């Protein structure tokens, strides 16, 4: 039981004044003194009386005196420390100082700022600030620390609960036995807009009135809540959130009492967490004179009793506020029980009479589908048409039934608008789209970005909201104009907090616009995909994985280029597994580790397309007699005859290399991939055997399919002797009969893209303006969207992030200015603390 003590609690008036001597020595296992201070890079005291001076005993010394009565009590000062603590302990031959940290619960804060496994490895305990989920910064009531989120919450707000926050930290790599769950001894208050509407998520005009002792609006210590309840407030127990709140006139407070604290302690024990952290010891009823029952520290005492088995003095009972105060009962919402229906009955309902239905048709029914076949994404590069001789590749060389999706790479940005990278690409667009004449089910996307394009243009594009919105809508016009099925975003690579947020914003704006355009046009929604790195370092540096997973239909993971000519020792381009002898860092540079890392960070398996290369990376050996993995290399291998790039060979060029005299082919049984060498030339690549092995692994892991870079580097002419496209065909054959489980329940998963048409709303806006006249209309189903009529043309437009459409002013406005749209107010960062 970890208790925070605040050095400013000494300044509260009357009953609120709290000093170290008010702490019961056996109440907590650990006391954390909050806060220390950094002055000129050195740890220092904060308050003038923290340290003993001029013969006057300071707060530090007075807190430490508690150890005389309870020698096992640990006292810490809250303020890179682990290695220093280890060294100091060895030097003075004493137990090492403990190192803990208080950490946030906001999903954006955690994923954006914490390398959880690394942080956890250094800390003795992780104090999770599981409170301040809601407060006066919002315009609707919400509980300070709900154990579970209410069903009435929005999808985003459903992340804001003690249970979800703790589970997220565990999912991101925090050991349960180090997670100490925060328990507040205070409540967050609101002033209701309408005192007759006092339920959770009711409109509020701001924070509640300041307490007599804590003197802060929107905030009450537990003993101040007790006074409120004893002075006429009504008590409400919310059985969904497993916490209470109180209402008095237009004042509303969400808090914890003994009942909710005991519930949370049972939850902690059931889930195997390390314990409870209290913010703060000085806001419980430390005198035992206000809340009733003559019990000092009723909340912390209940924690101690539940977790440590130490009963309260005289076996004192909890205060039952539902009997002491006015009580209002709110029934938890319940869902009707599921209806069981047989498959035959279901088919009768969804199948028209006398209609033949085969397995494929059933799998393509959007309603109720729980599985689908694996996807095969094939990139085609625009520069492959420029290769000499038999290396020249055109759209007509593509087998239309080879892939489920073809992505033409790459388009570019011109004046921040989506544009063809080359004049010849315009013609190529039409020729690629013509593939659908032979396979109507083929989806064809346009990719923007790429390695050569770099990160800077994307940074510039996303630095201005207006510029980004213009890009989004003009991108739709280009994609529709050439009949593409979607857009693939290849930003290589976002890095840092700003880029991470900008990347999410770009994908979000694209997805919202694609959704809106499909509704207004009646056309199948455009697909949104992205190519993403395999490197665990790149993922951590620039990707909010759970957020981008919401907006992307598919995530193409570039699980190749793990090693190449930029290194001075040979390594395989795309090993499935690591060598046993590899360093801990090198063991992370594999297909298996990278795919698992994306899942670990929150990507749904069904959306992950695992990259499969149809090329190899080559090296020039320093010593031809040393050719194993890790052998010294002087640089890249000789350029291929057709691709013309040092350190690189297409598969058909690898075939030529293998057919040369004195070439040795080696199968690496550890990495499950082949490599070959001849004299001082070495190449690591994938062949039919290694790709079949990867397909078996992919099926076992349950991933959504494969992404191929690229279709033009497989043996598309059949020169290797095993037919055309030997690599891609080997993968397709291995994937036959495999089905992908569809388990992700994101906000847009009900809107199929690329082929499933949506039903038009009969009440939708009809544009009947005169030519040249522009009018604006609200989207009654979505405050963040609106319709713009330009003559008879209708455009479905989104407002910039955090704004809603104001039909009275015909502008995008703050939600609080638009009746019925206040629920779109964005929450600020959670886990605020004094």
Automatic annotation (TrEMBL):
One of its GO terms (molecular function) is chitin binding. Residues 1-310, 374-738 form the GH18 domain. CDD domains: GH18_chitolectin_chitotriosidase. Transmembrane segments: none annotated. Residues 764-823 form the Chitin-binding type-2 domain. InterPro entries: Chitin-bd_dom (IPR002557), Chitin-bd_dom_sf (IPR036508), Chitinase_II/V-like_cat (IPR011583), Chitinase_insertion_sf (IPR029070), GH (IPR017853), Glyco_hydro18_cat (IPR001223), Glyco_hydro_18_chit_AS (IPR001579), Glycosyl_Hydrlase_18 (IPR050314). Pfam families: CBM_14 (PF01607), Glyco_hydro_18 (PF00704). SMART domains: ChtBD2 (SM00494), Glyco_18 (SM00636). GO terms for cellular component: extracellular region. Keywords: Chitin-binding, Disulfide bond, Glycosidase, Hydrolase, Signal. It comes from the Eukaryota. GO terms for biological process: carbohydrate metabolic process; chitin catabolic process. Belongs to the glycosyl hydrolase 18 family. Chitinase class II subfamily. This is Uncharacterized protein. It comes from Coptotermes formosanus. The lineage of its organism: Eukaryota, Metazoa, Ecdysozoa, Arthropoda, Hexapoda.
